[in-house]
Specification:
The structure holds two protein chains of two kinds. Chain A contains one helix and six strands; from the N terminus they run H-E-E-E-E-E-E. In chain A, about 10% of the residues lie in helices and about 60% in strands. The model of chain A has no long low-confidence stretch (mean pLDDT about 85). Chain A has a single domain, classed as Immunoglobulin-like (Sandwich), CATH 2.60.40.2000. Chain A has one helix at about 1-10, and strands at about 15-20, 25-30, 30-35, 40-45, 50-65, 65-80. Chain B is α+β, with helices and mostly antiparallel strands. Among the domains of chain B are: about 5-75, ACT domain (Alpha-Beta Plaits, 2-Layer Sandwich); about 100-165, Ubiquitin-like (UB roll) (Roll); about 180-245, no CATH class; about 260-325, no CATH class. Chain B contains nine helices and 22 strands. Chain B has helices spanning about 15-25, 45-55, 70-75, 80-95, 110-120, 135-145, 285, 330-345, 390-395, and strands at about 5-10, 25-35, 35-45, 60-65, 100-105, 150-155, 160-165, 180-185, 190-195, 200, 205-210, 215, 220, 235, 240-255, 260-275, 280-285, 295-305, 310-325, 355-365, 365-380, 380-385. A five-stranded antiparallel sheet of chain B has the order 11-9-15-21-20, covered by helices on one side. The mean pLDDT of chain B is about 85. Classes of the chains: A mainly beta, B alpha+beta.
């Protein structure tokens, strides 16, 4: 099952993926942006949504279904993917 | 990279951002100012697509353009700047075509002024063209200065470096058809005489003064025939030739200090800088010196001659403590030997053989008097021509 999980992880292009470290967060497979404010960024990834909450959030880079967010990230929430 | 900074106003700005994501348009530094406005940097190559996306739903303003391409276009659009820059380049280039400074090295008996004047006559002077024929200049210098044995000229930009080497004064030879004697140029005890022509007039170990005849050019003819008057003496006059070696004594006196000044650093120091522009110098080490005795050390960091002379150096003034220390006998002896060697180098010819040297130390109040006696073996003969009496008497 580990191999399956890895395959799903590597080849899923519709699942939300987020990598956060310090004051930087990288969101992959982003198809659209629903909310973009200084305190909250919500991105749609096809079959789910990612919400980042915090303070002084800015999008440093946006291209190729990837956005790089910088700022104080306090909460990461994933929606729409039951199971 | 070429980027345009844009300011976007409109409703549902997140929709525009989503469209950019979908179209693959790269945006950087997105700052959401409010629900209706944001700023971002768009790549120059993506800008046409971005402006089509924006369309009439949003209002956008280009606030800035970054990158090499807009910079070059901005520069090229300013014609006066281009013309001014070209004029500047032409002036700099023209300046390199001329000699801006001449430095002379290696002169001893000749003065720098003499050399510069001769160079000017030969065609090389400050302001002359760099394309001057250096070989012709060197030949002219050899012709005008007899003491010159070698000259070299090199260019470093507008700086001409002239290096000279002076030779010894040439000895005027006596005409070989002219009768002459060999006389003593110095006084000494005769050691060896080699007479190739003429008659030896001195014996070994005899003392000769300056001017004494060593090898005579006047030879008495012993006439064995009976046809001449036996009381008349006949002479033959020859061009004397040969070498006469004699032991000469040289004496010189020098003085040395009994005490030596020793300097020790206390560890306290002040760093500073020196800046020289042309002939003006400003040195922080001269402005404030809180120490009674100090040592100054400097390291040159920047030294430019062209396009303008500037020199920048960092320095350090270190406090010193002075102590008077009595010098040891070995040190005094070593210095005396150095002084003797210096004397021999400056006053005696190179071919001289040193036979003996002695030093006598006479301590006085605060100094030591050193008397040095040097015995050398050297060639003392020199030719001096004379006019034969018969020729002198002939009207």
């Amino acid at each position: 099952m580990f191999v399956m999980d890895e395959l799903i992880y590597d080849f899923s292009v519709n699942l939300p993926r987020v990598l956060v470290g310090g004051r930087t967060g990288v969101l992959d497979h982003v198809k659209k942006l629903l909310i973009v404010t200084e305190t909250n960024i919500v991105a749609g990834c096809g079959s789910g949504y990612i919400s980042l909450s915090g303070a002084n959030l800015t999008i440093r880079h946006l291209s190729d279904e990837r956005i790089i967010v910088s700022g104080e990230i306090r909460t990461i929430e994933l929606y729409g993917n039951e199971g | 990279m070429h980027y345009k900074s844009v300011y976007i106003e409109g409703f549902d700005i997140h929709r525009l951002l989503s469209q950019c994501l979908k179209e693959g348009i790269e945006l950087r530094g997105i700052k959401i100012l409010s629900h209706y406005e944001f700023t971002a940097d768009v790549r120059g190559s993506d800008f046409p697509r971005f402006s089509r996306l924006v369309g009439s739903k949003y209002r956008f303003t280009i606030t800035k353009e970054k990158g090499v391409k807009p910079l070059v276009l901005r520069v090229l659009s300013n014609r006066y700047m281009i013309v001014g820059f070209l004029v500047f380049l032409i002036i700099i280039f023209m300046q390199t075509l001329f000699v801006s400074e001449i430095r002379v090295y290696g002169y001893e008996k000749l003065t720098e002024r003499e050399i510069l004047e001769c160079l000017k006559d030969a065609g090389l002077y400050v302001g002359s063209s760099r394309s001057v024929d250096l070989d012709r200049v060197e030949i002219e210098m050899y012709r005008s200065l007899d003491q010159l044995s070698w000259i070299g000229i090199t260019f470093h930009g507008g700086l001409a470096e002239v290096t000279v080497a002076e030779g010894t004064e040439p000895v005027v030879p006596v005409d070989k058809n002219q009768p002459c004697n060999i006389i003593a140029a110095k006084e000494g005890y005769i050691e060896k005489t080699i007479a190739r022509e003429g008659k030896v007039a001195v014996e070994k170990d005899s003392f000769v003064h300056v001017g004494d005849v060593l090898i005579s050019g006047i030879l008495q003819i012993e006439d064995k025939t009976y046809s001449r008057d036996p009381d008349s003496v006949l002479y033959r006059y020859v061009h004397a030739d040969g070498e006469v070696y004699a032991r000469t004594i040289h004496r010189f006196i020098c003085y040395q200090d009994i005490y030596d000044l020793e300097k020790r650093r206390t560890g306290r120091s002040i760093p500073g800088i020196r800046l020289t522009l042309g002939s003006r110098t400003w040195n922080s080490g001269n402005v404030f010196i809180p120490y009674k005795t100090s040592a100054y050390e400097e390291k040159v960091v920047l030294d430019l001659l062209w396009p303008f002379p500037v020199e920048f150096a960092i320095n350090r003034v270190s406090e010193l403590e002075l102590f008077m220390v009595e010098r040891g006998q070995e040190e005094i002896q070593e210095q005396a030997n150095r002084q003797v060697r210096e004397f021999i180098k400056n006053n005696l010819p190179e071919s001289v053989q040193i036979l003996n040297k002695s030093l006598k130390f006479l301590p006085e109040e605060n100094i030591i008097k050193v008397i040095a006696m040097i015995e050398a073996l050297e060639q003392i003969g020199e030719k001096r021509s004379f006019i034969a009496p018969e020729i002198a008497e002939t009207p």
